[in-house]
Amino acid sequence: MTTLWRFGYSARLLKTNRFRTAASNTSFPAVWMLLAQYSGRIPGLFVVVKKNRFFTMPETVEDKANLELYSPHPEVRGMTLLDREAFKRTVVVPVLKVKKEIVNTLLKSLKHTVLQRPGLKRVVEDPEDEDSRLVILDPHKIPEFSLGESEQEVLKQLNVRPEVSKYNLELTYENFKSEEILRAVLPEGQEVTSGFSRVGHIAHLNLRDHQLPYRHLIGQVIIDKNPGITCVVNKTSIIDSTYRNFQMEVLAGESNLVTKVKENNIAYELDFSKVYWNPRLSTEHGRIVELLKPGDVLFDVFAGIGPFAIPAAKKKCRVFANDLNPESYNWLLHNCKLNKVDNKIKAFNMDGRDFLLGPVREELSKELQLLKEEQKTSFHIVMNLPALAIEFLDVFRHLLAGEPCSTAGLPTVHCYGFSKHDDPAKDIQERAEASLGTSLDGRCSTYLVRNVAPNKEMLCISFQIPADVLYKRPCPDEANPASKRLRTSKDFSEEKLPS
């Protein structure tokens, strides 16, 4: 096919093979990319393409010139300090010349065919005709610059000539998606990370070793491409089993790690550097709270800042919430006040085992003795410390003394754990049984919460504590110990919350 190069080059016959892009099965002449390279300095250049023809190009041009249409310039490969100007690139795209009076009608009729890219105009001025506009089409939808029958029918109805032209379109950093930018920058063939956990204004990453040299660039790209994100952090250590927090590095943006989040219509505030918060557990928090009825009693052994406790209190349950981390305890108190449930939650800052042996035992001893057969109050014990919680289950062995209550009144435990076993549900059950000293066959259910890592699952095992495990029958001469007053938040010096 012959084309007229308007900027003074002589016309010539070009010859090439077509190629396929990764984003589509549609074939494109590779010369589109070649033309873009040579004509990038001439804004607004466009050439007419005759219907049912295709470009050819010299055989001497190497395949590496055949750049993918929406890939940034290859020179950005290996960049560690973000240079937005280096992402500028000109590509050749198909356009339709349309009278400006019918542009809006045409856009509606061809909405699946016009170009859809971040920050790009779909309509540009015609440099040769002020009464016309150029409507930019998606090259992936217009193979070989040839309109399909449906598009031609639309143009016929609007009295528009079905002639496709080529237009030099400048792409900048703003027009590329974060995945496209990072794929172009990181070493070819290596995994690209563009996903993250969002905690308020903070984006939390878990970068692999090969991505660390590019971590500051990755952080800045995430801020640029995600409105509302003003801080990006990367985890630099595993979660500490004691306080459930971890070391992190601020990769880009502000260093303010005190943030606000909203989960299941409840607001929380926290210091992400000092407490545990995982937005991926939102569904699980909601699932457990959904099991509760007004009037039920919830013991939250590892409560964190309150994602189980506070919605349960809002549901008019009685809640006893505990966390060993002083920071989590302080933020728990803060969030109870924030959500106006501070008078419905008794908060504790204790080791989980001490919490079970103290306040939980005392409350169950009192409540279960008074529980009548017709009462429908349920007792739930949540143990969300998946790295260690199963090891705490032995506390329930003979936790209470006296005659067992009715089966309906036995507390239900929801215990979380990790498993790398081929059969994670079986693994979790067997480990729980070993801690309890009894079989749970037919008396428990397991629920897959989420996949944490390859071959590592987080599960929840739920069961009513068997009466023969929970109760120890006292000897006749055994004296009844005096009950102890429950320790609440008033018994602990409240640390001042971060301002």
Write the layout of secondary structure elements.
Blueprint: E1 18-20, E2 27-29, H1 31-39, E3 89-99, H2 103-109, E4 123-125, E5 132-136, H3 149-157, E6 164-171, H4 178-185, E7 197-199, E8 202-205, H5 215-225, E9 231-235, E10 248-253, E11 258-263, E12 266-271, H6 282-291, E13 297-300, H7 309-314, E14 318-322, H8 326-338, E15 345-348, H9 352-370, E16 379-383, E17 400-401, E18 412-419, H10 424-436, E19 444-453, E20 456-464, H11 467-470, E21 471-472
Parallel strand pairs: 8-9, 13-14, 13-16, 14-15, 16-18, 17-21
Antiparallel strand pairs: 1-2, 3-5, 3-6, 4-5, 7-8, 9-10, 11-12, 18-20, 19-20
Can you walk through the features of this model?
With 499 residues, this protein is α/β, with parallel strands linked by helices. The protein is 22% helix and 22% strand. The protein is built from eleven helices and 21 strands. It has helices at residues 31-39, 103-109, 149-157, 178-185, 215-225, 282-291, 309-314, 326-338, 352-370, 424-436, 467-470, and strands at residues 18-20, 27-29, 89-99, 123-125, 132-136, 164-171, 197-199, 202-205, 231-235, 248-253, 258-263, 266-271, 297-300, 318-322, 345-348, 379-383, 400-401, 412-419, 444-453, 456-464, 471-472. The termini are far apart. Residues 1-67 and 492-499 have low confidence and may be disordered.
